[in-house]
Amino acid sequence: MGAKFDRGFRHFAVTLLTAIAKLKFNTKRVSTEEVTPGALIMCNHTSVWDYANLLYTMYPRHDMRFLATSVHYDKNKVVHSLFKHLGLIRKNQGSNDLQSVKEMMKASRAGDPVIIYAAGMTSFDGRQAWEPLPGIGSMPKLLKTDVFVGLSHGSFISAPRYCHETYRGRVDFELKRLYTAEEAARLSADELQQGISRAIRFNDWDWQEEHMVPFRHMKNLKNLSRTLYMCPACGREGEIIEKRGRLVCKACGMEARRDRYGFFSSESPACPKRMDKWVDLEISAIKRELEMENFALESEVTLFSRPENTTEKYVCGGKGRLRLTKEGLVFEGEETLRYDLNAFQFLILSDTNTIILNADHKNIRFVFEDTRLITKWFFAHRAITGIEF
């Protein structure tokens, strides 16, 4: 199978995903500009379906080259092969990866648009999960090309990461030029980093308050308590349970109902209307905890690891205790592992029971026995590193 097969396979996949975007998410083009050859497209990252919404917006083009994280690229040998035929560029998530930069430069020079989801991960609460990764501002200068931004609105509500379900309502997509190649050349990498950061910031709940789009099956709250783990009324953590259309605190009895627009209502005045405001309460509580000298999160986990840049199976390293402090991560079990904060960019969550770490040329997995507060680990690390939202 050669280049001709890859082009045909890519065209088929783009056509299929474009149809899915329209039928599954009711995607709309709200503004588009013609993308120039070899352009760099920086996108916000609202859900795992963002790429389908971009493909719909750019259809019938099928020459786009997406940057894909190693977590998805190396899932298994079949996925690895499919991604290669589709022209996806592999990126080691949470670490520096010069090989992916070389592949992006090669693709751009061949005239293919290069698509980067600059935050490196999907949204947890309807806002960006992380600031654009270090080095993003250097990419326009390396590729010497025009820079566009692709913005999804409503995609998080359509396919929130906490539940791996989809709710049909509407997704609005904007595609517009941010800089010409000449404009980018005149700016410093820091100025480009800041400009891209401003351009891709989003909040699906601001968009929803303006448009009030009804979404189907909003009563399904599967796994929402992993993100909204703290009761806004009594402050207890890990006591929220999911019932049909409601979140209920086992400790104090607070109930929050979700309507078809994704907003909450409750008899308790402490309950926020919006998911992002609920998360803000959790972040504020974490910041108060961080004022304590002995701050630490601890959990019983099982360690798995494998060499970096491989599809090999993970090898179990036994059970142990994992700690997150203001200095880094420590695992104590059959072996002791220590990672300072500068050893990795961020924690990668599976949204079920696993935290993934790319460091020391290894892919490390920590599988949690108690998953109720697993998202708190991510929020805590984000607060420790000073990322503000």
Question: How does this model look, in words?
Answer:
By secondary structure, the protein is an alpha/beta fold. The strands form three sheets. A seven-stranded mixed β-sheet has the order 1-7-6-2-5-3-4, with helices on both faces. Strands 15-14-13-12-18-17-16 form a seven-stranded antiparallel β-sheet, with helices on one face. A four-stranded antiparallel β-sheet has the order 8-9-10-11, with no helix packed on it. The chain has helices at about 5-25, 50-60, 70-75, 75-85, 100-110, 140-145, 155-160, 180-185, 190-200, 205-210, 275-290, 375-385; strands at about 25-30, 40-45, 65-70, 90, 115, 145-155, 170-180, 240-245, 245-250, 255-260, 265, 295-305, 315-325, 330, 335-340, 350, 355-360, 360-370.
Write the topology of this structure:
Layout: H1 3-25, E1 27-31, E2 40-43, H2 50-58, E3 65-69, H3 70-73, H4 77-85, E4 89-91, H5 98-109, E5 114-117, H6 139-143, E6 147-153, H7 155-158, E7 171-179, H8 181-186, H9 189-200, H10 204-211, E8 240-243, E9 246-249, E10 255-258, E11 264-265, H11 275-290, E12 297-307, E13 315-324, E14 328-332, E15 336-340, E16 348-349, E17 354-359, E18 362-368, H12 374-384
- State the helix count: 12
How many E strands? 18
Instruction: Determine the fraction of residues in helical runs and give it as a percent range.
Output: 25-40%
Low-pLDDT stretches:
none
| Global mean pLDDT | 92
Computed structural class: alpha/beta
Q: Over the alpha carbons, how many angstroms does the gyration radius reach? A: 21 Å
Termini distance?
46 Å
Instruction: Tell me the strand order in the biggest sheet.
Output: 1-7-6-2-5-3-4
What overall form do the CA principal axes indicate? globular
What is the N-to-C succession of helices and strands?
Answer: HEEHEHHEHEHEHEHHHEEEEHEEEEEEEH
As a percent range, the share of strand residues is: 15-25%
For the largest beta-sheet, the strand count, sense and barrel status come to:
7 strands, mixed
